[in-house]
Recover the amino acids of this structure.
């Protein structure tokens, strides 16, 4: 994979961006120049350092309460990484279980499972998430669980399609012949061979989850202050676009770059893990 990564500019860009975001999230307390929650009204709405009136103490400027924008962007990456990965783990676990059971067992189990999946697809994603968060109350845990519960159906569809193909393979038939249990066949012979598609989907879903968390926080039904998130920073800065453009611009740029990096990484993983695309993954 490292050899193929060197031949893929898109993969290199994705790995660099995702690596930087993870580095910020892990070492945020060590690299933040200021306390992201500390008020200093004497330094409110300081512009970025390259603009007239800017200061090297606030490289990306300060917000309406005098808090350092760079420090808030750094600490906000923690919520994005936490929510993105945790929600995908929840959705993946549920969706893989449903898809594996439906595809392997077939019959009425498959029919019922896929009708439930269709029902989830029929409801707008953001509307379902807002409804659940509204009922349970906004918090980091609620957002993680909610985003996990409203995204599992994609994994179920993908895994079911893979299982329907894999269960007819010769090695699966041979496992049946020698008397292996259904659980062992599904977990040892079928699921590992379906994981390439799941890994690619999970990578792309992390990007979608980061956008969804930002949207919920922007609408006021996601993570609540004093926790810092990029979505909340966008919401706080929308009323200052005319005079303090940096308040909303930099969080938006952070979200965009992070999502693009994850998408680039997902595209590269797809090329690496799918034998049919290996010829194009090095282009």
């Amino acid at each position: 994979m490292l050899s193929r990564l060197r031949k893929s500019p898109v993969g290199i860009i994705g790995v660099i961006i995702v690596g930087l975001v993870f580095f910020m999230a892990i070492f945020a307390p060590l690299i933040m120049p200021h306390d992201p929650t500390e008020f200093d009204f004497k330094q409110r709405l300081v512009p970025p350092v390259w603009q007239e009136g800017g200061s090297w103490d606030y490289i990306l400027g300060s917000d309406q309460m005098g808090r350092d924008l760079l420090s808030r962007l750094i600490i906000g990456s923690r919520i994005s990484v936490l929510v993105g990965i945790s929600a995908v783990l929840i959705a993946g676990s549920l969706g893989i279980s449903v898809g594996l059971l439906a595809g392997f067992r077939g019959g009425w189990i498959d029919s019922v499972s896929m009708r439930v999946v269709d029902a989830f697809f029929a409801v707008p994603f953001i509307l379902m998430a807002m409804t659940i968060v509204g009922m349970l109350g906004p918090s980091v845990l609620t957002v993680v669980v909610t985003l996990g519960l409203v995204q599992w159906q994609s994994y179920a569809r993908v895994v079911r399609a893979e299982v329907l193909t894999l269960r007819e393979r010769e090695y699966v038939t041979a496992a049946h012949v020698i008397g292996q249990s259904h659980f062992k066949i599904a977990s040892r012979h079928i699921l590992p061979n379906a994981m390439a598609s799941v890994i690619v989907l999970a990578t792309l879903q992390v990007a979608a989850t980061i956008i969804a968390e930002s949207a919920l926080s922007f609408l006021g039904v996601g993570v609540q202050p004093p926790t810092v998130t990029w979505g909340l920073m966008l919401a706080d800065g929308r009323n200052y676009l005319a005079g303090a453009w940096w308040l909303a611009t930099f969080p938006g740029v952070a979200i965009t770059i992070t999502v693009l990096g994850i998408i680039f990484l997902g595209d590269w993983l797809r090329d690496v893990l799918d034998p049919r695309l290996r010829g194009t993954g090095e282009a």
